[in-house]
Specification:
This protein has 6 helices and 7 strands, in the order E-H-E-E-E-H-E-E-H-E-H-H-H. The longest helix has 24 residues. Strand 3 and strand 4 form a beta hairpin. A 7-stranded mixed sheet has the order 2-3-4-1-5-7-6, sandwiched between helices. The protein has 187 residues and is α/β, with parallel strands linked by helices. The chain is globular and about 45 Å long.
Length: 187
């Protein structure tokens, strides 16, 4: 059985420590956990490994957020991975910082990465894991906030939250989405 976990983010040093790149951070932690190094590949950096007998592909697209769907579609087709074995990890403004929300389907909620994936896959029916980054910004400053760096309080709590999200993704791979949602949602 094969799985594709995609951490959304933007390539480039200027985005590395931003809220919008939390998907990349979770992908890196999963790859580290299963001892799968990232290698340059089509549409981004790919890590391949095994977790409890299941083959896991971990992708950090290099397409920029707005074109993430191209990378997702390519790898699903190339590896013949069914939609239900896809997990998209992304940031979410509507959730308090660090909140974990896993769902089997849903709207893009205005997120450009999810919008691109939905357009390419022609469906909203694919698993996603949202990482709450909160909405603590003045009116009209959403882009600055999302592309801004973590504050000191967030930085302190980030490693534990990334660890939790990594475990949720691996639970999805091993135990399925229903069990992972029951075990991790809201925690």
């Amino acid at each position: 059985m094969k799985y594709l976990i995609v951490g959304l983010g933007n390539k480039g040093e200027e985005y590395t420590e931003t809220r919008h790149n939390v998907g990349f951070k979770v992908a890196e932690k999963i790859a580290e956990t299963i001892e799968a190094p990232f290698k340059s590949s089509n549409f981004g950096l790919m890590a391949e490994g095994k977790y409890k007998g299941r083959k896991v592909f971990i992708l950090k697209p290099d397409t920029y957020m707005n074109l993430s769907g191209n990378a997702v579609k390519f790898w699903l087709q190339k590896e013949n991975i069914p939609l239900e074995n896809l997990m998209i990890v992304t940031d979410d403004l509507s959730l308090p910082f660090g909140t974990l929300r896993m769902k089997m389907k849903g709207s893009d909620a205005g997120h450009n990465g999810l919008k691109s994936i939905q357009e390419q896959l022609q469906t909203q029916h694919y698993p996603r894991l949202r990482f709450g980054i909160s909405a603590e910004f003045p009116e009209g400053k959403q882009i600055d906030y999302v592309l801004g760096k973590w504050n000191e309080v967030e930085k302190e709590k980030l490693p534990e939250r990334i660890e939790k999200f990594s475990k949720a993704c691996l639970s999805f791979v091993f135990a399925g989405i229903q069990n992972a949602m029951t075990s991790f949602n809201g925690k």
